[in-house]
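User: Predict the complex.
Assistant: Input components as received:
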Amino acid sequence: MLFTSWGFALLIAVLIPLYYAVPQKCKTAVLLLANLVFYAFAGVFALLLLLGTAASVYCFARWIGWLWTQQKDSLAAHREDWDKAQKKSFRERMEKKRRLALALCLVLHFGILFGMKYGAGIVGLANGLFGTTWDGTKIVLFMGCSFYTFSAMGYVIDVQRGKYPAERNPFRVLLFTSFFPILVQGPISRFDRLGETLFAPHRFSRENLEAGLLRVLWGYWKKLIVADRLLVAVKQLIRYPETYNGAFVFLGMLLYAATLYADFTGGIDITIGIGRMLGIRIDENFIRPYFSKSIGEYWRRWHITLGAWFKEYLYYPISVSKPLRRLTKAARKLGDGFARRLPVYIATFAVWAVTGMWHGNSWNFLVWGLSNGVILLASEELSPLYARFHGRFRGWKDAWAYRAFTVIRTVLLLSCLRMFDCYATVPETLRAFGSMFTVWNLPMLWNGGIASLGLSFGDWIAAGVGVVLMFAVSLQQRPALLTPRFLQKPLAVRLAVYGTLLITILVLGYYGFGFDAGQFIYNRF
Amino acid sequence: MKAVWKKWIVAGIAALLTVGLLWAAQRLVMPKYQSSSIEGSLTEEYYRETLNHDVLFIGDCEVFSNFSPMTLYREYGIASYIRGSAQQLVWQSYALLEDALVTDSPSVVVFNVLALKYGEPQSEAYNRMTIDGMRWGKAKIDAIQSSMTDGEEAITYVFPLLRFHDRWSELTVEDFRCFFEKEPVSFSGYLLRTEVRPVTQTPTPAPLTDPHLPQTSMEWLEKLYTLCESHGIELVLVKSPSIVPHWYDEWDADIVAFANSHGIWYTNTIAQNDEIGIDYETDTCDMGQHLNVAGAEKLSSWFGAELLRRYDLPDRRTDDAYTAVWTEQIEQYERAKATE
């Protein structure tokens, strides 16, 4: 079920009153039912996979939890009669068993995810190599699979690490894995953080309802007025790269930056808003990312939960892994600086390669991911140079103009990188990028070029106003979210804002018969 | 306590304002069908009628273009109305008749058979032109359910704003002028066209893949017959004169068989062309697809005589209530003919 479908609106309209009407002990059942209804629209197989994932994750976590209990009980029982060495050896044996269980779990679930993401490509490759005629097009990635797999694996890893015990109630694990607002585009949630609020008792609160409603309306506003409208122009620009080169590529780059922001943050706003209406606090996934002053800062403020997941479950484990430590030790022969950098470089490239692969199954995404890694490491290497520069030009760093320059530089840089997300192949992306510097066709933009992108004058005005408003709201959200301050406004003002948002969405929104809108861009990852 | 009441009142006013603004927005963005695609106004215009009709026409463009109720009244005193619309599918004809029977009691219902060639929903735009103007009731709900094409959603018929909201950037003066009241575009459902575009060639019809009319269409025709029978109405089947689209002999045979088996009158006026006197040099407005007013009057003159010969229809020219309404309408009709 898509967030932009009428069925979804109906689901929410039924769920919210029902959720607060039923006794506390029935709320989990109501949410589970809503999850099943929501995901049933993805198809029987998708639903079965989701249920299977939840069941498997529950079993693996319980197995690992049981191994922890065994260890504790045995150590307690043999506190007196085992010496230190025996205890250490026992711990190591149990740790090996837990790691084995975790490895099985990870191989199974990431294997399924990998198969769905890359199955079609692998089949195509096999057909090419061995002359077979298998049909790879039937292998598709079920909606939300990337997101719930990552959340679920995070839970099992945490249990393996002993961060918290395995959940005994299977329905809670199912609820966590299948919680419908976060199912299709995140945020990628942690069991301890989400569970704390997901399983807590919820009483009706006007504040929660209003805050959630505001967030939901704002999310739809961004998605339907800005994102889906601009996407028409972006698609047109990408579809004909030979025609739309030079200045058009630059325009497309900026339009895609606005589209992706409006689309993804809009979707997350809807997600967080629905959670809030149910009294459930979902982690923020963005902190005004387009105001970042460097790519590193940007990635700490954009899709925060994915970055945090990779950092905690991939970057750190790789950095401290035995093979890498051995490699670092060996690299000391080539110099301390090199040896210090080696694990950082390897872990960074590994994380960004996987991040790229997570986003898509073409070479574009791998190149995109690795490019991010290169820029981040280059920034790190150049940081002494920056420090010297700022030492010499004291005061620049805090000057408004310099900060604005760094923000614009960052937005342009990440927009350039995102071109890999737009164009079909790496060479095509590079050709389009190059044409920005080799083809001079700026006047063509207003000599009919912009008019040929599939949007009317009114559409451009609506999208333009939308982008300015998004920017203005982002500015207002410093240092904290606007919602608590908004809720202090008089009732009449608040209602006027809700009404205005609703009416403008319904009238100016890019939706309905004949419009190719609906799915969020991140639904496909 | 006072503060709580104040909040409820503010909330109530805000809710009313929002609903009112949404209603106004919907009213504004809905197509008015006054200067283009004017056939979209036809369904709605029927509800302006105050008198009963003895003959009701239902069907596609071939009824609202080819039959003139003015001629039927002037020459025979037949009070008729055309509930036609562009590409009106048979289940939509059924719904429009069912809807009309809530307030109207015709003795004869004339159904044009051309649209029977469509056994499935065809076009969203035509669906909207036929259904949006209907008043709410079971007939409209049935029409929506049976007519929706892929991608259409029933809720957009309940709240047409959700369908037509994208017109906000193309609103014209007409949308504001017709916000409260629209001008009638027809004469008892007849769309008057005076231009002459003669037939220049007769295209060769494509061979039929299936010699029979779709089963779904025939089932709806059966339902139409049953509906008429249950109301004591005589159902008449007619194929209007046309050169294009081609009316196949195989389809005609299906209709003849249906009419014979049900004991109802079916006339294929293409075969009666010489008797009616249609001249495709002067009587068509679009090279043989539809008749112009000259052709429509010839056809109506012939058809009215046939109706009177076969059915017991009252002469409404002696009824003062009818005379007052129809005389004014005929005067407007003549003025329009002269000025078009």
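The first strand of chain B starts at residue 55 and ends at 59.
Let me know if you want any component modeled separately.
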